[in-house]
Amino acid sequence: MKPVTVYDIAREANVSVATVSRVINNTAPVKKSTRERVLELITKHQFQPNALARSLFKKETGMIGVILPDITNPFFPEVLAGLDQEARSKGYTFFLCDTVSTNGDSEAQYVRESQYLGILMEKQVDGIVMIGGRINLAKPSKELVGEVVEASKRVPLLLINGNLPGEGMTRVYADELEGAELATQHLIDLGHRHIAFAGGYKHMSNTTQRVRGFVKTMEKNGLRIRKEWILNGGFSVESGKRFLNQLLELPERPTAIFCANDLVAIGVMKTAHKAGIRVPEELSLIGFDDIPYASNSIPELTTISLKCYDVGRNAAELLHQMITKNKVSKNTKLRPELIVRESTAPPQEMNNA
C-alpha cells in the first residue's frame, strides 16, 4: 500500500498543502471546521509528517551536523551525550561526521572536514557543530579558517572547545588554562616540587593552553621548570607509555606528572605498574578531561573535569537559539573542576619524614 503523503491529505481535504502545514505545525490560524477536517484525515490515514515534509513546511530539516576528529576518543561521546539530550528535547537529530584518519594523517583529516562541511550544507542541516580538528590548531592556515567562516555565513555554526582567533565565531568551551592551573597547584599543594608535563601536540591550542597553565603555576610558586620534563607528541594511552619510558631514562625523575589528558595518564600508570613504580606512593599522576575510564582505573585517577556533558548541553541550547534567530553570546565559558581521587598523594620523602 502506497504511503499517504501530505499532498494526499491536502487533496482529500480540498485545501492547500500550506493549510495542512499550518494545522500540523500550528504556525497560523486555520478555520475550525477546516482544522477538524484535516485532523480527522490525519487520524484516518495514520499520517505522520516525515523530515522532508517538515523541511517543506518550515524550511527546516530538524538535523544538526556534528563534525569531530575521532569518535573512539572517550572525550567526544561525553560531549555528544549532553548535546544529544538537549538537542532531542528541541526536536533535532544528528548527522555525525567522524573525520578520523586511519594512518594519523592530519592533512587527510582536514580534507574530510572540508568535505563534510560541503555535504552538511548540501543536506541543508539547520546548524553545524565543530569539535576538535582544525579549530584546535594554534595557527590554522587561512584556507582552513576561510572554509569555516564561509560555512558560518550560510548556516548557524558553533565551535566547541576550540577557536578561530579574530573571526568572532560563536563558541562554547571549558577554560583549559584554568584547568591546567588547578592540576598543577593540586600537585604543589601536596608537596611536590619535581613535576613533569606529558602529552599533547605543540601545534594544538589545547596543548599550548595546558602547558601555559602548568608553566605559569610553577613559576608562581617559584619552582624550577625542566625542559626535559615537558614531553609531547600524543594524546593516546600508547603515547603515555612512551612518555614515562622517556622520563625513566633520565638521571632524575619527577615525583609527579601532569598528563595532558586521561588517556595519557592511563598509559603512564600502566607503564609505572610494569616498572614496579607505585602510584601514588612513588609517583603521583593527574589527568585531564575526566573521561569514564578515570573513575574506573586502579588506582582511580585524579583529574580535571572539563564538564563535557554540560558543554554539550550548552552547545545544543546555543545552536538552537542561533537557528531560531535569537541573539547569543559569542563566548560561553565553563569553569573546570578538580576531581581528587586516588592517584595523587604527598611525595614519598614527606611520607617518610
What Rg, in angstroms, do the CA atoms define?
A: 26 Å
Poorly predicted regions are none
Q: Sheet with the most strands?
A: 6 strands, parallel
CATH architecture of the largest domain: 3-Layer(aba) Sandwich
Determine the CATH superfamily of the largest domain: Response regulator
CATH topology name of the largest domain, in short, is Rossmann fold
Describe the structure.
With 353 residues, the protein is α/β, with parallel strands linked by helices. The protein has three domains: 53 residues, 434 Repressor (Amino-terminal Domain) (Orthogonal Bundle); 134 residues, Rossmann fold (3-Layer(aba) Sandwich); 144 residues, 3-Layer(aba) Sandwich (Rossmann fold). The chain is 45% helix and 14% strand. Strands 2-1-3-4-5-11 form a six-stranded parallel β-sheet, with helices on both faces. A four-stranded parallel β-sheet has the order 7-6-8-9, sandwiched between helices.
Summarize this structure briefly.
The chain is of the alpha/beta class.
Annotation keywords:
Rossmann fold, 45% helix, four-stranded parallel sheet, 3 domains, 353 residues, 12 strands, 13 helices, single chain, 434 Repressor (Amino-terminal Domain), alpha/beta, six-stranded parallel sheet
Topology overview:
Elements: H1 6-13, H2 17-25, H3 32-44, H4 51-58, E1 63-68, H5 75-89, E2 93-98, H6 106-122, E3 127-131, H7 142-154, E4 157-160, E5 170-174, H8 176-189, E6 195-198, H9 205-220, E7 230-231, H10 237-248, E8 256-259, H11 262-274, E9 284-286, E10 303-305, H12 308-323, E11 331-334, E12 337-339, H13 348-351
Parallel strand pairs: 1-2, 1-3, 3-4, 4-5, 5-11, 6-7, 6-8, 8-9
Antiparallel strand pairs: 10-12
